[in-house]
Every structure is written in C-alpha cells, then in structure tokens.
Amino acid sequence: MLTPVVPDGLHVLLVRRTDDVGKWSLPGTFLHEGETLADAVLRSLDQKAHLTGQSPRQLHVFDASGRDDRGWVLSVAHVVLLAAHVVLPVVESHPADVRLRPVAEAVGLPFDHDDIVRRAVATVRQEYAERPDPERLLTEPFTLRQLRVLHEAVVGGPLQRDVFRRRVRDHLLSTQQKTSGEVGKPAELFRHA
Questions:
Q1: Which residues in the chain land under pLDDT 50?
Q2: Which numeric CATH code is attached to 1-130?
Q3: Neighbouring-strand partners of residue 142
C-alpha cells in the first residue's frame, strides 16, 4: 500500500505484527478455507490496516522457498495507491497499529517485504510516467501545478514544468474555467480525459 504524501513523496503503510511485538510489516494474512484471494486481501486491509472500501490490484507472486521461516509460503502481493487524505486519518486514529514510512525508510522488513515494496514503487512510478494521475488521486477539477506536485511526490523528485505540461496536456480535458480566490494569476482547471 503506497501513499503519495505531497510534497514528501511516496510512503508505505506498515502494520504492527501481533506475533513479533514491536516489528512492523506490510499488511497480510493467510487465506481462510473457502475464502477468495480478493476477500482475504480486503479482510487484511480492514482488520490490520483499518482501511475499507479500497480496490487493491495484484502486483506479483513471491514464492522463494526461504522467504518465510514458517515454511514454504506463497505471497500474492497487491498494491493500492491511496491519497494522503484517505490514509492519514487512519494512521492518526490507530498510531499503535499503523504507520506511514517514506519508501526509502521502509527497509529491513520481515520476509521479502523489502522486495515487495521495491516492485510496488517501480510499478507505480512507471504507471505515473506513462499517464497523468492514472489512479485518479486528484479531485477534479485540478490545476496542472497540482498534477505536477502529485507526480513529483510519486517519482520522488522535481519535474521540469514545461516538459511535464507538454507530456500531460493531451491527456487532460480543460473545464474552460480558472481558479479563483487564490493569490496569483488564475490557473486553468482540468479533469481527466
């Protein structure tokens, strides 16, 4: 689970493990008999991360034989990109159970969770390099500046303003309106194409 915290960059949501006091990991669970994988993922998000109403998507199957000291355990990793306004209230209301860490600091996690984080970050960054806000995190309408700041949080660094504008402009629809009530020149408002 990744969250772009503007302007701080991508963060990973971690949960406190119940079997290892003080240890943090990605949320996860074992399948219950008769349960679908999708239901298990949603149950894990609800019970461990206190998040509901999300739509995680499958990322990759991790199946290295030594990845879990409890035996040979497959992990079907999922990823969901969440807007900060969705996840921050959860973190604030459950500080003993849930925390956000910048992706660069989300290391030394149990099992092969470091590999899962790396793959999730690479996947999300590739998607944002190809399309403007593919996860639809911005509320419409939005300005090109708001879109660029979001993309900078995802990629982890500054983007050249003119190059970014040329790259995304054809993928957006103008609302034919401009911002008002803000300091500075009114900015054109857009929505996703």
A1: none
A2: 3.90.79.10
A3: 190
